[in-house]
Design brief:
Blueprint (H helix, E strand, L loop, with lengths): L19 E2 L11 E2 L1 E2 L5 E2 L5 E4 L3 E3 L3 E4 L2 E4 L4 E4 L4 E4 L14 E4 L4 E5 L6 E5 L14 E4 L9 E2 L7 E2 L9 E9 L14 E4 L6 E8 L6 E4 L5 E7 L6 E4 L5 E8 L13 E3 L15 E8 L1 H4 L33 E5 L6 E8 L3 E5 L6 H7 L4 E7 L3 E4 L13 H6 L7 E3 L7 E3 L12 E4 L57
Parallel strand pairs: 4-7, 5-8, 6-9, 7-10, 8-11, 9-12, 10-13, 11-14, 12-17, 13-17, 14-18, 17-19, 18-20, 19-21, 20-22, 21-23, 22-24, 23-25, 24-26, 25-27, 26-28, 27-29, 28-30, 29-31
Antiparallel strand pairs: 1-2, 3-4, 15-16, 32-33
Amino acid sequence: MKNYIQKFGLVAMVMATILVGCKKDPNNNETGQQILFGPNKTQIGDGSKEFRITEDVTIKKGTYTMVGWIYVDEGATLTIEPGTVIKGTDINYDGTAAATGSSLIIMRGAKIMAAGTREQPIVFTSNQPIGQRQPADWGGIIICGRAKNNKGEMDIEGGVTAPHGGNDDNDNSGVLRYVRIEFGGYPFAPDTEINGLTMGSVGRGTTIEYVQVSYCGDDSFEWFGGSVNCKYLIAYHGWDDDFDTDNGFSGKLQFLLGIRDPRIADVSNSNGFESDNDNPGSDDQPYTTAVFSNVTIIGPKVQDDNFVNNSTYITGYNWGNTANTAVFPIKPGIFQAAVQIRRNSRISVFNSVFAGYPVGLLLDKQRGDCHGAAERGDLVVKNVFMAGMSRLGADDNSTTDGAWTGDFSANYFKRTDLNNREITSIADLMLNQPRSKGYSGGVAPNWGPRAESPLLEAGAASFTDPKLNDPFFDKTATYVGAFKSDSPADDWTRGWANFDPQNTNY
């Protein structure tokens, strides 16, 4: 998402809610406030646009439909049992069309305890049947915390009224573990779409690991300030950016996988990474200083030998099912960069591989001093492979394919002290089978490096940089990227991730 919404006070809201206390009624799947409605007690929300959870509630394992914006208020904890499936909607309880897609919003001081397992992940997905699921079928998950950002109290983007921000970088908003979020990203308004997983000032006391966002109608993951650390994240076939960092986000992240479909791109230009300090690129502090290591980004050129960066792919696109010819109702755009760092951001990326984008590294010189930050070492791109890029580096954001200009980014990437490497051919990365399931001739994907891959060469990876001197990082000095090898034993996506959610029977 390209912009944020900042507000200077809380907006009063009139809620149509049903708050019926219930004690111990196992038939209702409730352990506190009654939140499940409908004849089979399988609906979350009462059909109104906004519904508040004000006390601790446990959703027991089962399949549920979520209607409207579900707020978990300060002091309340929402627990979701492993194996639960929650289907997001854009309808009201009576079946009429809703003005917004349903979303789950965890407010400051509230918690979500969604601790799935590898064998029983927790799934948030579309309520549409097989063959008819599309990005933006519903909203997404929003978590707000009390950690620092560089704007003070902010309202999270996406149209909901949910302030975030404070001074507690150790704030705890709960747990997301072994969770899938599919076909979300509802466009509430231009530039205020709800992301798959949106994190506003989330503190490092929160646990976020083994989370997959698939077919999102906006960014897959976006952080607005905060300090939360994350591991094992998958952004799969999203519409806009895979991993977006803003407003002073200072977390640490390791083992990230991003996979792009060449037919799905946004008018705002889609990137693997997009990072801002803020808009318009001020010196407001804390700066965006997130540190990434062991990332694998598979761009659109990897998926299609005849990739052309324009909107022609979208015509008749069926979202992975040959029986469906629906076209997503958003104007298609173009792909831009594997890594775009702009507007005074100072993120750093280590021990990672990016493949198959029009531009590899874009240190945008517009609004802010990313070039100066790179020269000073405030921003570091080190031990990184760029493979199969149409252009290694660019310095200017562009809206026209092929019009990127500037040499600073390419020259920075080639600096000998950074130990980066440019590879012309994507095939020379020697990944096992990087094409996504569903493409003609494709098989079940495996993004791990084969034994002869340069990603496994001695000295390709390193953890000596001071920015990696933190116990959070696993010191995987024998390989670059998200996977140690192409062995099934080293595939951390196995058992819980899903790369064909269109055809899954929920």
